[in-house]
Amino acid sequence: NAGVTQTPKFRILKIGQSMTLQCTQDMNHNYMYWYRQDPGMGLKLIYYSVGAGITDKGEVPNGYNVSRSTTEDFPLRLELAAPSQTSVYFCASRGGSVPDTQYFGPGTRLTVL
Amino acid sequence: DQQVKQNSPSLSVQEGRISILNCDYTNSMFDYFLWYKKYPAEGPTFLISISSIKDKNEDGRFTVFLNKSAKHLSLHIVPSQPGDSAVYFCAASDSDGLTFGKGTHLIIQP
Question: What pLDDT sits at residue B35?
Answer without folding.
Answer: 97
